[in-house]
Write a structure and sequence with these properties.
Two copies of one chain form a homodimer. Chain A is α/β, with parallel strands linked by helices. Chain A has helices at about 5-15, 20-25, 30-45, 60-85, 100-115, 130-140, 175-185, 205-215, 230-240, 250, 285-300; strands spanning about 50, 55, 90-95, 120-125, 145, 155-165, 165-170, 195-200, 220-225, 245, 260-265, 270-280. In chain A, strands 4-3-5-12-6 form a five-stranded mixed β-sheet, with helices on both faces. Chain A has a five-stranded mixed β-sheet with strand order 9-8-10-7-11, sandwiched between helices. In chain A, strands 1-2 form a two-stranded antiparallel sheet. The structure holds a DNA duplex.
Chain lengths: ~300, ~300
DNA sequence: TACTGTGTTGCGTTATTTGCAACGCGGCGA
DNA sequence: TCGCCGCGTTGCAAATAACGCAACACAGTA
C-alpha cells in the first residue's frame, strides 16, 4: 500500500471514472483497473462497486478513503516538516522547455515541486525544443525538457517521462494542399510526395528523423518553409501552407488541432522519447537534484 | 512509500543492523541497503548515518520513524476497523505442516493472520512433510506447507515461500561413521559410498531426489534405516547412526544442529521449493482464501 | 441493429527488485 | 604488523511485477 496507489484511489474515488483517473496519473485505464484490484486484494474487501455503466464506493471504500486521506496527509505534513529542517533549500534553477512542454508536462511536475520546495525559484525559459540539449551543454540552463537524442552526450543524464509519436499533419480547411491530398486518399492512390509543400523543423531531432524518412522512401521533398518550434508548424499547416511533422504531444496541446488532421503514413516515424535532461555536473547541485528527484517521483512515465 | 518499506525501516531503526533486519524480513542485506537508499531518495535526505562499524538514525531519520509509526498504526487500525465490518470472518481452517515448518515458516505467517482474523480458528496438524500434498488431495486439510512436487496436481495451487537446499549431513561426534568420512576427506580420497550407512526418508520428495542422485552416481547405498519426518533423520545422524539428507531449513531449526555437520557433495541435490499449497476448490472458501492472501502478503519469499 | 463508451483480461514487453559474489573499509587477535 | 572477520555497498544476471495494447463483454443510445 504505497502513496502512489493511495493517490490513485483518492482520485478515482472522486472521479469515479477509470479512464479519467488514468489520464490524470499518466497511465492506462487497464493499469488503474489492476491497481484497484491489487488494493482490494490487500484490503481483502471490495472498495468500489463497478460495472460497465457506473462506479461507486462501497462502505469499506468510504472508510478506506478516509484512511487514504489521513495517510496522505501525514505523508505531506512529514514532507513539510523536514523541508525546513537541515537544508531548507532555496535558490534558483533554470529550466528550459518548449511551450508545449510547459503546458503539458512541466505543469504536472511543477505543482508538487512548488509544494515541496516553495523557496526554490524556477526560471522557466521556453523556446524551440530542438535547442534544449544544447542549452544544457552550454551551461545556459540546469534542466531541459526535451526529446532524447539518438546519441546522448555522456555528460548528460536523461529520464524519459513519456513517448510521443511523430505525426504527419495536413490542413483540415479547404485549400489546394488539402484538396490534393484528399483526392489521392479517396482514390486510394499513392500520395504525390514531390508535389506537396512541406513545413519542416529548421533543425533538431524531428528534422533528422524526417530527413532519414525522406531518404529511405526515396523522396525529394518540396520544402516550403523551415521554421523553429513545432508549435509554429501546426500554425502554418493549419493555415493551409502545407504538410508538417510534429510530435503528437504538440498536436493535442495545440489550440489549432481542429484546423489540421493526421495523415496515416507508412512506415511511421520513430516516436519521440520525451523527458528531462541535465548534465551530471549540474545534478550535483542539491537544488537541481531536488527538482530531478521530485519530477521523477511525481511524473509517472508511460511506455 | 509503502507499508513494507516502512516496516523495514522501523525494524532497521531498532536493530541498527542491515543483516539482522534482512533476515527478519526474509531478504538479503543488499536488498535492505537498496531499500533504505530508495526511501532516502524519496525523502530527499539521509535517514541513517552508517559506515562499516555502526548505524545510527539521523535527526530526519528520527522524524521519519515517528511518521512511519503513525502511518503503520493508521494502516493497522484501518485493517482492524474493516475486520468486523461486512464479513467478520469466523470459522475454522485446517493447516498441515511439518514440525520444522511450524517453527520456522508458519510462525511468521500466523502472527499477522491472527491479528487480522482473530475469529478464525486454525487447526494445526503436524506430521511428515511428505504427506502434505496427499492430505490436500484427500481433503483432510485445507492448506499445507510443503515442498513443491516435481509435478503438481492440476487441482492444486502452490505458492513458493522460500527455497532450501537438500544437504547431506553426517555425525559431528566421534563414531565409526564420522571417523570413516573424516579419514577419507582429509586424504582427499573419494568417499566409499557403499560402506556408509544411510538414514533416508521413507518416502516423499527428499527420498525421490536422493534415489535419483544415487542412480545418477551409480551408487547402491547401504540403507541403514528409513524414517518418516526429516527431523528424525537429524536425530539419528546426530547420534552417529549414519549419513542422512535433510533440507537446510530442517537443519538450521534443529536443536541437534551442532551434533551433525554438512558434507559437501557434488553435484548437489536440487533444492526444495518450500511453500504453501491448497486445492483450487478449497480456495473458494473465503476463510481459506483469507489465509492464503494473508500469508502471501506477509511472507516475502526469497529467491 | 450498429455504435459508442466503459471496465476488464490475455499477452508480450519493459522496468524494477532481488540475490549472489566481490569489494572496501575498519577493528581485532596473533 | 599482518591476516582475518564482520558489515554495508555495488556490479551483474535473473526473476518478479507492472504496464500498454488490443480484444472483449456489456449496457445504453441513435
Amino acid at each position: 500500500m504505497d502513496t502512489r496507489q493511495l493517490q490513485l484511489f483518492l482520485h478515482l474515488s472522486t472521479s469515479l471514472h477509470f479512464g479519467q483517473t488514468g489520464e490524470a496519473l499518466h497511465m492506462s485505464a487497464s493499469a488503474v483497473s489492476r491497481s484497484i484490484k491489487r488494493m482490494e486484494e490487500e484490503v481483502g474487501q471490495r472498495l468500489l462497486e463497478r460495472d460497465n455503466r457506473s462506479v461507486r464506493l462501497t462502505e469499506v471504500g468510504r472508510q478506506f478513503q478516509t484512511y487514504a486521506r489521513q495517510s496522505m496527509g501525514q505523508w505531506q505534513s512529514f514532507s513539510e516538516s523536514i523541508k525546513q529542517g537541515a537544508e531548507g533549500l532555496e535558490g534558483e534553477i533554470s529550466v528550459f522547455c518548449s511551450v508545449t512542454a510547459a503546458y503539458s508536462i512541466l505543469s504536472d511536475v511543477l505543482e508538487p515541486f512548488r509544494r515541496r520546495y516553495p523557496d526554490i525559484e524556477i526560471k522557466l525559459r521556453t523556446g524551440d525544443q530542438a535547442d534544449g540539449i544544447a542549452h544544457l551543454l552550454n551551461g545556459e540552463d540546469d534542466i531541459a525538457i526535451a526529446a532524447r537524442p539518438d546519441k546522448l552526450s555522456s555528460r548528460l543524464q536523461f529520464f524519459t517521462l513519456t513517448h510521443s509519436p511523430l505525426l504527419f499533419i495536413y490542413p483540415a480547411i479547404h485549400c489546394s494542399v488539402e484538396g490534393n491530398i484528399q483526392s489521392h486518399l479517396s482514390s486510394g492512390a499513392e500520395l504525390p510526395w514531390q508535389e506537396i509543400p512541406f513545413i519542416v523543423s529548421e533543425r533538431g531531432l524531428a528534422r533528422t528523423r524526417l530527413d532519414q524518412w525522406f531518404r529511405s522512401q526515396g523522396i525529394r521533398p518540396d520544402i516550403y518553409a523551415q521554421v523553429s518550434g513545432h508549435e509554429a508548424i501546426v500554425s502554418m499547416v493549419g493555415l493551409g501552407f502545407g504538410v508538417g511533422v510534429v510530435p503528437e504531444l504538440v498536436l493535442v496541446n495545440s489550440p489549432l488541432k481542429d484546423k489540421v488532421q493526421v495523415l496515416d503514413v507508412q512506415p511511421p516515424l520513430v516516436p519521440f522519447a520525451v523527458g528531462m535532461s541535465a548534465s551530471a555536473q549540474r545534478l550535483e547541485n542539491p537544488l537541481v537534484k531536488a527538482f530531478w528527484e521530485c519530477a521523477k517521483s511525481s511524473y509517472r512515465r508511460d511506455f
